[in-house]
Amino acid sequence: MLCIGWFAILAQFVLMIQNRLVDIPETIILYFSFFTILTNILVALFFTVTAFQVKKFPYKLLSTSGAITAVTAFILIVGLVYQIALRSIWEPTGLQFIVDELLHTIIPLFMLIYWFFNVTKDDLQLRTVFKWLVYPVTYIIFIIVRGYLSGYYPYPFLNIKEIGFEKTMMNITIIIALAITIFVVLSSIGNYIVKIQRKK
After folding, report:
1. Measured between alpha carbons, how far is 16 from 75 in angstroms, rounded to an integer?
2. Assuming Cys at both sites, which of 5, 73, 91, 159 could form a disulfide with 182, CB separation 3.0 to 4.6 Å?
3. Against a cut of 0.70, is the pTM above it?
4. Could you tell me which residues come within 8 angstroms of residue 25 by beta carbon, excluding any fewer than 6 positions away?
5. Where are the domains of the chain?
6. Which residue blocks in the chain are alpha helix, DSSP H?
7. Is the pLDDT of residue 43 over 90?
8. Could you read off the pLDDT of 156-192 as tens digits, one per residue?
């Protein structure tokens, strides 16, 4: 999955450069404005840190207690939001279709399976996992500020210009609530898994 993750991320970058409507520097900024890209990079880094046992800051944060649960929750959000809100308005073809399925379906499912077999009790403490909420909150603040300055929003449900501030805030609340719900659900399932493992 480490190789597949980096392939999908780099392939998407190449596709955006090839199909760009603005200059390269702006395209690069747009590329890193997508939660999908940032979260898949987070997943790829997680597997890189795990495989090579990287201990340097800030990469070592991905090997701390709760990291695997938080990363799993975030990539599941990527998958769920895409399937529910974005798949119907986007019909990629060719390599873009393959990359899209990897980023939004295959990698989230694989991360969930990996979490299922590798989660430990230390990774299920909600207080530790909730600290990772700084990531989506920081992302949302960045998107709103950048959108206000540039007029560009990467997702229609965050587009204040098109749907208004009130509806955007409602969508943000739903996304944060979804993240918290997934944290709690994963913690509950994980604790059940740990109990079963102890009985064996």
Report:
1. 21
2. 73
3. yes
4. none
5. 2-199
6. 2-18, 24-31, 35-52, 67-81, 94-101, 107-118, 126-130, 134-150, 160-163, 165-199
7. yes
8. 999 999 999 999 999 999 989 999 999 999 999 999 8
